[in-house]
Amino acid sequence: MTEINMPLSKNVERVGHLDIPGGGQIVVDGRYVYVGHMKPPYGTTIIDVSDPANPSIVSQIMLDDNYSHTHKVRVVGDLMYTNVEQYNRHFLRQADKLPVLRKRLEESLGRPPTSAETAVEADIDEADLPELDAALERGYNAGGFKIYDVSDKAKPQLLSYTETFGFGVHRFDVDENYAYISTEMDGYIGNILVVYDIHDPSKPVEISRWHMPGQHLVAGEIPTWKGYKNRLHHAMRVGDELWAAVWHGGFRILDVSDITNIKLLGEHNYHPPFPEPTHTVLPLSQIIDGRRIAVVVDEEHDHTPGQLHAFMWIFDVTDFDNIQALSAFDVSERDSPWSRAPGRFGAHQFREKMDSTLVYATWFSGGLRIVDVADPIKPKEVAYYIPEPYPDQDSPQSNDCDVDDKGLVYLIDRNRGLDILQVTL
Q: DSSP states of 95-125 as a string?
C-alpha cells in the first residue's frame, strides 16, 4: 500500500461511487450515464444517476465472446452508438508476422524452427506463441460499429451492426446526421476516417472517406512513416470542420462543408521530438483576445525514463497556415503518490466538449485535472481529484470523464470504478 503524504483533491468532493468494471469512455445524457467497458465480456453499461449519491445500473450489454471489446460509446437522443474492435489488438497483431518468419527460418535452418527459435526471431515470449497462433488461425472479422435504440434504457435494442475491416473501429464522433468513424479499411494502412449517413439508423450508408497521403497502399501510396505510427485516432466535428488527431502525425483540420468531398484545411505535427502520440484536439468555443485557441492532449504509453510524459498543449489556430504552440500544461510526478507505481501516469484525454475555458482532463494515475485556459499563455490548474486505487490495483488509471448540466463530473477508471464528483470552485 502506497503511503499517502499529499492531498488527493483540491476544490473537488466525491459525492457518489459505483464499483463497475473499467471503462474506456463515459458519456452523460440527462439522468443517465453510459460506459463503454475496456475488457470483455462487459460491453456497455447504462446507469441511472438521478441520485448522484446512489448511482444504479439500469442495464448492461454483455458480449458474446472475448475477442472484441466495445469500449467507446456515444448517445444522440434515443440512439446509442458503440464501437466493435479487436480486444488486445496490438498484442494479437504480432501473429501476422509469424508465417513469413517461420518460413524464412525454415529455409535458413533446413528444418522447421522450434518454438524457442521462433520466439527469439519474433522478439516475443515463447509462452505467448500458443495464444498468437490461435489468434492467427481464428482470424478476426468482427470489427465495426453498432447502433442501439435506447428509448427504453432497461432494454436496449440493436438496430444495426456495420462491419468495417481489420481491427475494426476505435474511437468516433456522431451527430444527428452522420457518424465519423475511425477504422481500418481494406487497402489502407492504419485507421482512416469513414463517414456514414445515419438518417436511417437501421441501415448506415458510407458516403465519404478521408486519409493521409501514404495510407492508401493499394492505390500505390507509400507511407513516409514506419508501420502504424501515423493514423487517425479520431475526428470531432465542430461546425463545418472536423478536428482530427492523427497519432504520431500530430493533428489535422478538415473541411466538411461538403460531407461527400472532405478537404484538408490545416495541419500541424510536433512529432518528433515529442514522444507520445496526439490523442484529441478541439478548439475552444470562444475567441480569446482575437485569437482562435485549440486544446490538444497526447496519450501516455509505456514510459521510457528520460523521455517526456504525455501532457496537454494550447495552440493558436487562428491561421491554419501558421499554427503556433502557445503553452503546455503538465502534471509533475511529485503530484501523485502513484506516479511511479505500475500503470501509466501521464495524460490521456479531456472531456470532448468545449463550452467554457475549463478543460477537464484525465491523467491516468494523476487522476482528474481541471485546467482553466482563459489565459492561453498561462493555463492554470484550478481543481483536481486523484482516486485511491482498489486494494487489488497498483494505481488509479483515470481514463475518461464527462460533465452534466449541473456541473457534476463523472470519472471512469480504466481498470475499475466510477466516481461522481462535485467541483467546489
A: GGGHHHHHHHHHHHHTSPPPHHHHHHHHTS-
